[in-house]
């Protein structure tokens, strides 16, 4: 009987939730997709082929039991669908919104391979879990037994929050430390509201607090509290800081005024969205309004920047990427959304240098020798753009971009945003920690199964181990590390040292 509700992909076309028009959504920071209605969610879920080997599940880092909750949704059994969904995912309402499903579950859907269009897995996951919140099915964690052991988690991003959830459910005492004034990490301050509205993150943060997780915010490890103090206070420590150091460009005039880091730009925009006072936004430095904006990069962060600039009222927004569209790392769905909103992509292009113009000087006013050199400040005026072509494959197998000599041209710009990816900070130096081993890339060295570092009782997860990656991978790491930490503290599991 159940199968009669499924396998509808032949007769029912693929549909996403209705997308707000580009003109409407470009005026605000609200999410761009409208909600599925119950009937539409059930209809789309019924397109699942219930295949014997569910590639959607195997290509999900959390191995979510997608076919089962699609079937339950198609049958109108939403409470059971939610139970299956949240059994393997700690932040399902967030993954449904921001996972690159086109590269993971949906991109490996069997009916997609057969030309019928993938099941809209992400939109249905979002729908199921939004209904769960609305219906009050999601209640605070109530451990069967409280335990005396405590865990200190450094970083309130997806990895840290997922571990906090799992450990608290087992009755452990959990304290999360974070440098920002709100928990959530890049989910709060890095990802714009049009992809992930902030009340969704704050609601989950409050749920964790209601469940007994303690948050210590505005607390920078190495400045406000030492790493040794955290280790001394807790029975185990989890490092889940993420990576925030921006990759830079080695080109002329790299420090010109108006050349900013993506993380600074996005954080300022999100803080303004919260209603916070942000001086660098108020004085115009991090505000794209009325400016010719050039974003450098082709990943999801670059997509966030170009679409934010549109919403801030930029005069024009151009995105430079040194490869072609097919080779860009960002979500193709995000590229399409950006193009609809008025972003121009300049493929096969890279910045050669930043060209500035003098805006002022500092001489005697800075107690400088009046006979000495005058210090000048340069404000960005344009970007010298080098045209590229794709050559032989590099060590990763991707065609490497090569410079086309003599094809340079200047692109006027008032604001340049560097979205070139992130690198790990030097935590052993910043925190004054001896014996915390790192890899040659600067990431923390941790066992892939247990997530234990070179220090006893210290674990690490997420981007600080993997390098810049996806929220869903951090969630998986956090869940796995929670299991290892619980075993370490109770003596129920052996923790590998390597």
Describe the structure.
The protein is an alpha/beta fold. It folds into three domains: 2-135, Fumarate Reductase Iron-sulfur Protein, Chain B, domain 2 (Orthogonal Bundle), CATH 1.10.1060; 150-243 and 424-490, 3-Layer(bba) Sandwich (FAD/NAD(P)-binding domain), CATH 3.50.50.60; 251-419, FAD/NAD(P)-binding domain. Helices cover 33% and strands 17% of the residues. It is built from 19 helices and 16 strands. The protein has helices at 22-25, 38-45, 55-58, 66-74, 78-88, 92-98, 110-113, 121-135, 158-169, 186-189, 198-210, 227-233, 262-274, 279-282, 300-311, 332-340, 427-431, 463-466, 471-490; strands at 150-154, 173-177, 214-216, 236-239, 245-246, 259-261, 292-296, 316-320, 344-346, 349-362, 375-393, 399-403, 409-412, 415-418, 422-423, 458-460. The strands form four sheets. A five-stranded parallel sheet has the order 3-2-1-4-16, sandwiched between helices. The relative contact order is 0.12. Keywords: 4Fe-4S, Iron, Iron-sulfur, Metal-binding, Oxidoreductase. Residues 1-24 are annotated as: Disordered. One of its GO terms (molecular function) is oxidoreductase activity. Residues 26-136 form the Dihydroprymidine dehydrogenase domain.
């Amino acid at each position: 009987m159940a199968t009669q509700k499924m396998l509808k992909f032949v007769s029912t076309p693929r549909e996403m939730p209705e997308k707000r028009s580009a003109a409407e959504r470009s005026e605000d920071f609200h999410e761009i997709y409208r909600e599925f209605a119950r009937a539409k969610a059930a209809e789309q879920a019924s397109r699942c082929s219930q295949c014997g080997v569910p590639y959607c599940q195997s290509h999900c880092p959390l191995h979510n039991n997608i076919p089962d909750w699609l079937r339950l949704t198609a049958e109108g059994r939403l409470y059971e669908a939610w139970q299956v969904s949240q059994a393997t995912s700690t932040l399902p309402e967030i993954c449904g919104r921001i996972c690159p499903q086109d590269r993971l579950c949906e991109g490996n859907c069997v009916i997609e391979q057969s030309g019928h269009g993938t099941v809209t897995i992400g939109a249905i996951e979002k729908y199921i879990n939004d209904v769960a919140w609305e219906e009050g099915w999601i209640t605070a964690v109530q451990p069967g037994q409280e335990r005396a052991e405590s865990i200190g988690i450094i970083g309130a991003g997806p990895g840290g929050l997922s571990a906090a959830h799992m450990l608290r459910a087992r009755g452990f005492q959990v304290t999360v430390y974070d440098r920002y004034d709100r928990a959530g990490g890049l989910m709060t301050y890095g990802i714009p509201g049009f992809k992930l509205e902030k009340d969704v993150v704050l609601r989950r943060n409050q749920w964790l607090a209601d469940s007994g997780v303690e948050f210590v915010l505005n607390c920078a490890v190495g400045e406000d509290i030492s790493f040794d103090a955290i280790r001394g206070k807790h029975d185990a420590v989890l490092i889940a800081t993420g990576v925030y150091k921006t990759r830079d460009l080695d080109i002329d005039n790299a420090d010109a005024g108006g050349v900013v880091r993506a993380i600074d730009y996005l954080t300022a925009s999100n803080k303004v969205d919260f209603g916070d006072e942000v001086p660098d936004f108020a004085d115009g430095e991090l505000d794209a309004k009325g400016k010719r904006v050039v974003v450098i990069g082709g990943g999801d962060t670059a997509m966030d920047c170009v679409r934010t600039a549109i919403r801030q009222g930029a005069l024009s927004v151009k995105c430079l990427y040194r490869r072609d569209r097919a080779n860009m790392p960002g979500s193709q769905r995000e590229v399409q959304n950006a193009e609809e909103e008025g972003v121009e992509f300049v493929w096969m292009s890279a910045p050669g240098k930043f060209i500035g113009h003098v805006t002022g000087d500092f001489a005697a006013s800075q107690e400088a020798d009046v006979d000495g050199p005058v210090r000048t400040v340069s404000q960005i005026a344009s970007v010298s753009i080098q045209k590229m072509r794709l050559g032989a494959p590099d060590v990763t197998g991707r065609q490497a971009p090569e410079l086309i000599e003599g094809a340079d041209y200047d692109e006027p710009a008032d604001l340049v945003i560097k979205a070139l990816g992130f690198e790990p900070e030097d935590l052993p130096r910043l925190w004054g920690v001896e014996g915390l081993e790192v890899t040659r890339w600067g990431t923390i060295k941790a066992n892939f199964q247990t997530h234990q570092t070179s220090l006893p009782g210290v674990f690490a997860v997420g981007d600080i181990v993997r390098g810049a990656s996806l929220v869903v991978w951090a969630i998986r790491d956090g869940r796995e590390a929670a299991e290892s930490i619980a075993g370490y503290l109770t003596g129920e599991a052996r923790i590998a040292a390597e």
